[in-house]
């Protein structure tokens, strides 16, 4: 496994094996990332993983400085997973000058996560476009835990006609249902025991909709109330269409229930897809 720090070295290395599949990450890797690599590996001769904590996607009061950085442990996991190239640039390699050209996603960037994290998706889209132009993969894998991120990047690739297939991967969960996330590290032991409630509430919403409930606003409010009742500070629970994350029309069959809520210091997000029979 090659660990590469500079853009020049990355370009030289990938010239040798241009058939590559890409998994972008911010490090602090867990089983969810390893699953993405498992999906990537059979698709190309070379699997590239980036580790880069992207300042541009963090708000001024967010956790950029304290975001867990575990480079040595990450490299051990990546080696065991059979990754070929790790691209772990310093900030100056990615942003050698002030990044004044940015990717401005559609209005999708202002709803749900975007409403609570202004500028987040602009930062994500900008760094991912830049990483794509450095790595030039034919495919890239993104976890569906960050559902809105996946939709924004899928649309970016389509609208800019980038020759890259975006492959979504299912969320990986702990046995009690909690979605794996680097930010779970912020939970105290007591909060960790409480945290699976988020997924349980999403499953309940899923089951109600599957059983025929169509008053989505009631379901959203009830779910938020449940969370608040157990010490959470919910930002949103929202029933949306999978295709574009807009409010569903009566005949929409592919839905997703998305949620974000704070528990202590941690802000957790999760979602559950609902596929109704046609
Ligand atoms: O999902 C993440 O880890 C990040 O948002 C990404 C896609 C690596 C961009 O920094």
Strand order of the largest sheet: 1-4-3-2-5-6
| Spatial extent as radius of gyration | 19 Å
Tell me the structural class. alpha/beta
Distance between the termini: 47 Å
| Count of helical regions | 10
CATH overall fold name of the largest domain: Rossmann fold
Quick one: CATH superfamily of the largest domain? HUPs
Oligomer: single chain
Poorly predicted regions are none
Helix and strand pattern: EHEHEHEHHHEHEHHHEEE
Molecular shape: globular
Characterize the main sheet. Answer: 6 strands, parallel
Mean pLDDT metric: 97
What is the CATH level 1 assignment of the largest domain? Answer: Alpha Beta
Helical fraction equals 25-40%
Bound molecules: pantoate
CATH architecture of the largest domain: 3-Layer(aba) Sandwich
Number of domains: 2
| Strand runs, count | 9
- Beta-strand residue fraction: 15-25%
Notes on the structure:
- It is a single chain.
- The chain has 278 residues and is of the alpha/beta class.
- It folds into two domains: 2-169, Rossmann fold (3-Layer(aba) Sandwich); 182-272, Pantoate-beta-alanine ligase, C-terminal domain (Pantoate--beta-alanine Ligase, Chain: A,domain 2, 2-Layer Sandwich), CATH 3.30.1300.
- The chain has ten helices and nine strands.
- It has helices at 7-16, 31-40, 71-80, 91-94, 113-116, 120-135, 147-159, 189-194, 197-210, 216-229; strands spanning 2-4, 20-25, 46-51, 85-87, 139-143, 165-169, 233-241, 254-263, 266-275.
- The protein has a six-stranded parallel sheet, sandwiched between helices. A three-stranded antiparallel sheet has the order 7-8-9, covered by helices on one side.
- Helix 6 (120-135) crosses helix 7 (147-159) and helix 9 (197-210) runs antiparallel to helix 10 (216-229).
- The model has no long low-confidence stretch (mean pLDDT 97).
- The site of pantoate has 10 residues, from strand 2 and helix 6.
- Pantoate is lined by residues 24-26, 54, 57, 124, 127-128, 146, 149.
